[in-house]
Amino acid sequence: MKITTLCFFVLCSASTGYSIIERDVTRQIRSHRESEKYSPDWKDLDTRPLPRWYDEAKIGIFLHWGVYSVPGFSSEWFWSNWKGGDKKSKDFMTKNYPPDFTYQDFAPMFKAEFFDPKEWATLFLKAGARYVVLTSKHHDGFTLFPSKRSFSWNAYEVGPKLDIVDQLSKAVRDVGLKFGVYHSLYEWYNPIYVEDKKNNFSTRYYADTKLWPDLKQLINDYKPSVLWSDGDWEVYDTYWKSTDFLAWLYNESPVKDEIVVNDRWGIGIPCKHGDFYNCADRYNPGALQNHKWENAFTVDKKSWGFRKTMSLNDTMTMRELLYQVVSTVSCGGNVLINVGPTQEGTIAPIFQERLLNLGNWLGVNGEAIYSTSPWLHQNDSLNSDVWYTCLKPTYNQRHPTAKPRENDTITAIFAIFLSWPTNNQLEIMDISSYLHAGTYKVELLGSNNVLNWKIKNGVTNIELPDKAKIQSEYAWALKISLK
To answer: 102: burial class by Cβ within 10 Å (0-12, 13-18, 19+)?
Structure first.
């Protein structure tokens, strides 16, 4: 919230060294700041402007890493599946571990002996990411930081004996990226949570004595730029006291002006409240949304955590990955691309390859992605392989996903196409009326050539160069701007 800056002359009191005018102005500023505080209700919290950095970043990396990476079987929900009676999980444990083996016995095996946070951060930078979100705690309750409320069930005391959140946050920030944390609100088998659940959530022992202290420790100790909430769906936001927490986060926390949060804060909240919406895992509506949103998806299509049985066919191809990136950004969203590290602390080579290829693509075409806004059209009405973005200097912090207004200055329009036409002639429609309105040039990013184009029957035909001479392999971006 904006605080009015007041300039004044200082008239000091000899006895106090503090002027009457200073006291008066300080009182005015304090009063103004207090009047601008967000109330702990969704209506007021929803008026908070979206911090600009997040909208401009577009590309994030998601990391699901924890005790579940040790069995590396099925998914990060392994403990729940096993304890819930899933036959494949039970058979896996019967075949490979003694009868009395527990999920907790996996924790000492989570040694992360090859974890190199600087190496990870460098990889994410090369991938073209602008922020990184780490699972500080998943639904199993095991924290990757020394939680003061998670005795002997955290990575500082068991397994790697490291404060992983601290180490990775420093490495990520050292290379110039933003750092965020994922945190599950609930814990499957925490006895305090189970007791509240038995009481039909009429008691709040877990939320008060475990969740809130952990969340505040994360915010105060690590100062994340993103808080990615999850595990909210069993109970309403009133149990979690979500609005009270967010009011503190926005008004008083050390990251109150920087942080962004998602929409998973209780039954009925997703896709309705939050700085950005996730709505559901792998959410990509393919159309412009009225609110800032994020498409969180996995390179391994079957799991967020690392799977030792993952095959090449289980992973996204570069074309599939770029479709998610391009279509999401065109429709006003960010992408949060998930990879699951191994129990040893390495990123699988197939994940590295996908991320580095993405970085290479962004190195050529990033101008059509970073800091862009939705254009008047998203997916071309004639050619479904073409998606649009635009550049405009004015940031609409109240409605960053809005189409350009009449008084907005558009410095460039980008048409990103995912298939190269066999005859090197790209036909698109939605740009035609815009090209008619002035004198424009069309360039292919990564190429120094200005392309020829013509309009016939409302369809723009653009002559592309020889594909063999072009840097990008998977998708290409045209820049349309005034000569």
So the answer is: exposed
Do 227 and 289 fall into the same domain?
A: yes
Residue with tokens 């036959």: 87
> Are residues 100 and 68 part of one domain?
yes
What does each of the 483 residues of the chain score in pLDDT, given as a tens digit?
Answer: 333 332 322 323 333 333 333 333 333 333 333 558 999 999 999 999 999 999 999 999 999 999 999 999 999 999 999 999 999 999 999 999 999 999 999 999 999 999 999 999 999 999 999 999 999 999 999 999 999 999 999 999 999 999 999 999 999 999 999 999 999 999 999 999 999 999 999 999 999 999 999 999 999 999 999 999 999 999 999 999 999 999 999 999 999 999 999 999 999 999 999 999 999 999 999 999 999 999 999 999 999 999 999 999 999 999 999 999 999 999 999 999 999 999 999 999 999 999 999 999 999 999 999 999 999 999 999 999 999 999 999 998 889 999 999 889 999 999 999 999 999 999 999 999 888 877 899 999 999 889 999 999 999 999 999 998 888 899 999 999 988
Total of domains in the chain: 3
What single-letter amino acid sits at 353?
A: E
- Domain stops at, among 366, 401, 430: 366
Nearest one of 280, 166, 142 to 223, comparing CA atoms: 166
Is residue 323 domain-shared with residue 425, that is, in the same domain? no
CATH of the domain at 349: 3.20.20.80
Per-residue burial over 177-192, b if 16 or more Cβ lie within 10 Å, else e, is bbbbbbbbbbbbebeb
CA distances to 150, 158, 256, 365 from 147, rounded to whole Å, are 5, 12, 22, 42
266 Cβ contact partners less than 8 Å away, ≥ 6 residues apart: 232, 235, 236, 237, 238, 239, 240, 242
Q: Cβ(296)–Cβ(282) under 8 Å?
A: yes
* Residue indicated by tokens 């039954």: 267
Residue corresponding to tokens 């196409």: 417
Q: What is the pTM of this model?
A: 0.91
Do 348 and 306 meet the contact criterion of CB atoms below 8 Å apart?
yes
409 and 278 part of one domain:
no
Half-sphere exposure of 479 (CA within 13 A, CB side): 21
Q: Tell me, yes or no, whether 290 and 404 share the same domain.
A: no
Looking at the structure, tell me whether residues 411 and 328 fall in a common domain.
no
CATH of the domain at 455: 2.60.40.1180
Angle of the 117-126 helix axis to the 349-365 helix axis, nearest 10: 40
Query: Does residue 380 belong to any structural domain of this protein?
Result: no
At a CB cut-off of 8 Å and minimum separation 6, what does 392 contact?
373, 404, 408, 409, 410, 411
Where in the sequence is the domain holding 315, given as residue range(s)?
A: 49-366
